[in-house]
Design a protein that fits this description.
48% of the residues lie in helices and 6% in strands. It is mainly α.
């Protein structure tokens, strides 16, 4: 009998993964044949086939081979869900992109831009061309205030998947989502402070963002907060809890201009630059 394969993280390839919790009953029922996992190396949360124990599949080799193919599909989808297993409001269905959606994206609608990015990432025939196009649309949606796009774009830059790795841009977009009040963005921004990626390493600031995420009912935030709290002195913990109460999160996501991304390609023909906004569309 062959050794069952270890479930590898689709973001960084690490084989150090563990079972994670379902975020809601709806998520569990929508993915009956999958199970959530968390990478111990990069923190990426992803879905993979169930029937596992201790991170190893208990299926015959033929079924395991089929599951590997499924993981490749998950990797493609995770380029836009990056590397965190989804975001509130994401639709996992692979519905074809309607022409009105593309037109709305070109007119500057951030939700449409986000959907166009998803459709591009789920187009296996176009390969890197689709990935570059998706990054361009994610950037547009993020600049238009879409926090989900900010998080996905930040993770892409952090992990260097689909675009060259850039910690400064990762910190910019994840910080923008966190300050806009997005709980998942708070968790990701806290992780940057914990590890010193793109920002100064600061366990106290990591606690602050984890604590705010937990207050927004994010279970990952609560777990990360309790873990980082063990590294703080009683005085620092008290100060971090006080800082957590200060309202630093604006109620909108638009703000500072992001650092320049010199690697950003010119838009493809399919994702042509958005024309001037029609009269009546205000900022």
């Amino acid at each position: 009998m062959s050794t069952p394969p270890v479930i590898a993280c689709p973001a960084c390839g690490s084989r150090e993964t563990r079972l994670s919790r379902w975020r809601s009953h709806e998520e569990r029922t929508a993915h009956a044949n999958l199970h959530p996992y968390r990478c111990n190396h990069c923190g990426h949360r992803f879905l993979a086939p169930g029937g596992t124990h201790g991170g190893r599949q208990r299926w015959p080799l033929a079924v395991a081979a089929a599951s590997v193919m499924l993981l490749f599909a998950i990797v493609g989808a995770s380029l836009f869900v990056v590397l965190g297993g989804g975001h509130a409001g994401d639709d996992p269905a692979h519905a074809p992109l309607a022409a009105p959606t593309l037109e709305a994206a070109r007119q500057g609608d951030p939700d449409a831009q986000f959907r166009v990015a998803r459709a591009a990432l789920l187009d296996p025939e176009r390969g890197m061309e689709a990935t570059r196009e998706a990054v361009d649309w994610l950037r547009r949606a993020a600049e238009n205030g879409h926090t989900g796009a900010m998080i996905h774009l930040g993770r892409l830059y952090k992990n260097g998947v689909g675009t060259p790795q850039n910690y400064e841009l990762a910190a910019h977009w994840l910080g923008a989502a966190a300050r806009a009040g997005d709980a998942e963005g708070m968790v990701e921004f806290g992780r940057l402070h914990r590890s010193g990626v793109g920002v100064e390493q600061d366990a106290m600031q990591a606690y602050v963002w984890f604590n705010r995420a937990a207050a927004a009912l994010n279970l990952d935030g609560a777990q990360e907060r309790d873990s980082i709290a063990l590294k703080l002195t009683p005085e620092d913990l008290k100060r971090a809890q006080a800082l957590s109460l200060q309202d630093e999160a604006p109620r909108h996501a638009e703000g500072a201009t992001p650092p320049r991304d010199d690697s950003a390609p010119a838009p493809t023909l399919k994702a042509s630059a958005a024309p001037a906004k029609p009269p009546g569309r205000g900022e």
